[in-house]
Design a protein that fits this description.
The chain is built from five helices and 17 strands. By secondary structure, it is an alpha+beta fold. Strands 7-6-12-9-10 form a five-stranded mixed beta sheet. A five-stranded mixed beta sheet has the order 14-13-17-15-16, covered by helices on one side. The protein is rod-shaped and about 95 Å long. The chain starts with a helix and ends with a strand. The relative contact order is 0.13.
Length: about 270
Amino acid sequence: MFQALKNIHAVLTAAGLVLCLALSSLPAHAGDYLIGSQDVLKITVFEHPDLSIEARVSEEGKITFPLVGEVMIKNLTTRQVEQSIASKLSTGKIIKKPQVSVFVSQYKGRKVTIIGEVVKPGQYEIPGPTSLLDTISLALGLNQNAGYELTVFRKEQAANGKEVTRKIAVDIDRLLNGGDLKQDVELKNGDVIYVPKAVFYVYGEVNRPGAYRMERGITVKRAIALAGGLTPKGSLKRMEITRKQGEKDKTAGAGIDDQVAIDDVVRIKESIF
């Protein structure tokens, strides 16, 4: 029974992943893509073919443009690069009202890391606008102990110039099983995705004691059902939950409708009659 439930979850997860991948499309985020080192750009200036070039962004984030010289473009969008080059051409009195177009022909040098409860954790190079689902797919999906929430850690520059790490919480169940594409955040270079383990434990007078994947809103009743129900000796009146509170564990009596939390240990005791 437990194996069957695991198989069902795997199928639902895979189906949700396929559905969301089908619904999402990379170009939706292309306008927000921030250019990185080693990207290759195609730049054209309307009615000035002699200024049309293909250039690779240096490690310092610069390109060299004809008649203008070095232009810092790292972490700019293509629209911002267009405006920057047009401004230099205009203020340098090289071209009046230049119309510059920028297209990223090759995406290079951008990586994200995914760790925790995925089949193949590691660091992956992302070829351009890349969503969370794309990266989970690269990591061959979530494993059976993955929680229903994950965290994206992103380094950003604060207003005072200092680097800070922002935590972005993502409800992975709503994304994979509910098709909520708002959860499918676009990843940026250097992002780290952490998929935590989320299980609870059932032991005592149940037919299949063991560890089970945490689901949102699970109760003691459902926990017992997942564990195959009570043995003939089990008592619904003698149940307890041990829960971590800081560095200590606290054990208290439990009712059939009580909520179970991550890492809880649910114990079903033997009836005294």
